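Reviewers of the previous submission asked for a worked example of the structure-prediction workflow described in the proposal, so we include one complete record here. The input consisted solely of the amino acid sequence. No template or homolog information was supplied to the procedure at any stage.
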Amino acid sequence: MTDRRPGSGKVALVTGAGRGLGRSFAERLAGLGYAVGIHGLSDDETAEYDEGTTVTCVAEEVAEQFGVDTKAVFGDLSVTTNVTCVVNEVEASLGEIDLLVQCAGGDIAAEGGKPNPNNAVFTNEADVRSVIDRNLMTTIFVCQELAKRMIERRRGRIVTVSSQGAFAGVSEPAMYITAKMGVVAYTRCLATQLREYEINVNCIAPGDVRSGRFLGTREVEESRMVTEGTLNRVATLDEIARVVEVFAGPLGDFVSGQVLMVNGGNLP
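From that input alone, the workflow returned the following structure tokens.
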């Protein structure tokens, strides 16, 4: 019987997919029929906030649950040679990548954890570079690698991930917010350049979302942890991941260069 899911026969690469929002994107796309490359910085990164055992296990679980092919890949994507290796591995195993979801990032200091201090003036150089590399440079390098291949094929879609905080001026976390606004600007520039090649490029800007990292690094009011009945709450992972279905599927055929905040109307 023919698989009529919109992603059937297509391949997606989701970076930062071993846990949290990235894993939720991978699961949503697998449910649509995509074969999925599941990227992590390292195989054991899922254990940091008790979100799984290894990225390899995540890939196996997604494959079993949704009946699609998956490939676990690893590497620091702020290094261009690693980016090329990751993309080559996915395409060698699954086929040409039709969809990129660039989710890898985080407000993470050079030595791990959050930068301290974490503001516009006193954040140290190593932490500034760490946050910018993890969020903005990674986005640029991964998008460049996939865009070159998609241009040759004259097809493909790219979805980047920013943050609602990119649209607010805050003292903390200043470098993370700066990097995420850079992602927005880069997404719009990329969409403009790739328009003539029929490649759609869009950005998702989530608000608070209940990932392991978010819950493990913040105190959240209990009233905001409900899953329905109010817009004043922390989003579930799937509520954010659903948006990728719009950008990846037929509803997004004529949508490009857009940034969609998914935050229950909590405007910055």
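The mean pLDDT is 92. We consider this example representative of the routine output the project will generate in years two and three.
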